[in-house]
User: Fold these one by one.
Assistant:
Number 1:
Amino acid sequence: MKDLCIFLDAGHGSLDKNGHYVTAPSKQYEHTKGAFHKGRWFFEGVWNRTLTNRVAFKLGQLGIPHLIVSHEYLDTSLEYRVELANWYHKNFKEGLYISNHANAGGGQARGFEVYTSPGQTASDTVADLHWKNVKDLLGDRVTMRSDNSDGDYDKEARFYVLTKTAMPAILVEHLFFDNYDDAVLLMDEEIIDRFAEAQVRTVVQYRG
């Protein structure tokens, strides 16, 4: 797969070297019980990097070229992340951009979602593959949320990373971190590994 590069983006910022969470307050949540990243606090940016690093490791084992465009902990701008991906993409015939997130919805919502830009594009094919891979690997343990109004599983939004990338792109929302039951699942090592495995299978199938 030397002609393909996978661009991985761990959404938002994380913990700096002093243990300070550098991203927006809306990207963290303190549960009333349980143990997460810092006591009862769940930090989305920390989890996003845990998953993204796992995906990168698995891609590396398969010899699939990839580049993490997010910083180790800084919340760099979306423009900069997309600019990095678009610049390096020039060196490859094909590329795929995957932006990893966990969702928030007021504590009641649960489930997995994958987003593409509006309309029918190559990104829809990737999103469909990924939704099915997640369902195969995790469907009996997580809620699968989809929008079938246009005949496929993805939801559509004009997120910057979906509309400004020069290659197919998906944005993945892995459960709701402000829902206690979903948050507990997100801390499960096997769940993390299955989400990562689903992304790798999507890459392999897409390149096919």
Number 2:
Amino acid sequence: MADAPSDPHYLGHRDRLRTRLREAGAAALSDYEMLELVLFRAIPRRDVKALAKGLLTRFGDFAEVLAAEPERLAEVEGLGQAAIVELKIVEAAAARLLKVRGQNRPVMGSFKELLDYCRAKMAYAAREEFRILYLNKRNILIADEVQGRGTVDHTPVYPREVARRGLELGASALILVHNHPSGDCTPSAADIRMTQEIVATAKSMGIVVHDHLIVGRDGHASFKGLRLI
């Protein structure tokens, strides 16, 4: 009598990865192994190790894979829409977790938490985005809004619109945030000029600008830290 067919080799690999995550935590897993765990749900009947490693080769690291635009992910052979959705779910969950942790707590209370949140939201975006965090008198977040999206190196910003929205929300202060897709977080002359205009306009309406952060894949810049505000 013929031997019963054995289970595909990758099933044992999946069980081992899940066990390591459960017993040793995420720190015990490499980036490609974490990606494998994400892909398991969407691709149940195929070894996904090569696909996970290919994604890292193409995009750089775990965070950049999650943040990649769906259109770019769709260019990867073997990565279907179900897998892309799984990746975007994890990205959204990470951003939601950081946001929830910051609710009802002073945003300026922990610069690291603020920076982690902003980097998770936009550091890996392919185009520039300009985000505004509106705060109340206790520096607690009222609203997090994207004021505009632009090209790879420019986003149009309108100081009066920024301040007007602050009045609508009853904000007492705000933090400006935008990303530099190039990775170089050095403020440009246009960044400095635009920030000064927003600071002046907001001040005339009784709103304080606490900081302007520029975030990128490998770093950040704080206008307050650089004494540009």
Number 3:
Amino acid sequence: MTKPPFSSEGDHSQPADERGFFAEQQAKRPALALPPVSQDDAHYHGHRDRLRIRYRDHGDTALADYEILELLLFRLIPRRDTKPIAKALLERFGTLAGVFGASPALLQEVKGIGEAVALDLKLISTVAHRTLKSELKGKQVLASWSSVVDYCHAAMAHETREQFRILFLDKRNALIADEVQQTGTVDHTPVYPREVVKRALELSATALILAHNHPSGDPTPSRADIEMTKMIVDTAKPLGITVHDHIIIGKDGHASLKGLRLI
């Protein structure tokens, strides 16, 4: 009888079975050397773990703004110390809202922020805007006025050019649509009352809330803002369309033309 190649009988120099053979071959191979962990790497990885634990155990109130930004950047920039980048973003743009409101081009001017990270930050900003907008859907907007202001502020406060935005409402004052009708320069947006009313009729809207931003940061209405608003009111009223308010958004606040008794 022919002996099997790996047998416990006869030649005892061979392994007893295939498992032993492959184990022996594996033992003969040189072990792969893992790259050494530098002290810098160990430092920021330990820091990341501690920050995550603080957030898990105590929530966002236990963290400064730059630490919240760090937590986010951990995911976007996995192999770098992100604390200097987070602090540089806040130094450049002032606040978390300023960071997320900045354009991708401006974000990339900060050392450590590439195109992919800049777009990820803008994606997070978009999610926040959509979340605020969803709070208005199907609700009586006038009963959720703070939500309207919060949404407009998130959407427009950090734009570098003026935007003229319209919230179109139905007869229950529920939101039908939210549209940016015009985008202008740093201090002017051309607005055409007939186009505003035409779009309202297309959507069967019976009420409007107007909003635009002042990139300068000061929400004080200008004479042109007041005159333009009155023209829209006068054009819309004969057609049964009410202008509830015109909100002007600045970086640090807002102004209501209705609240100022200017309409």
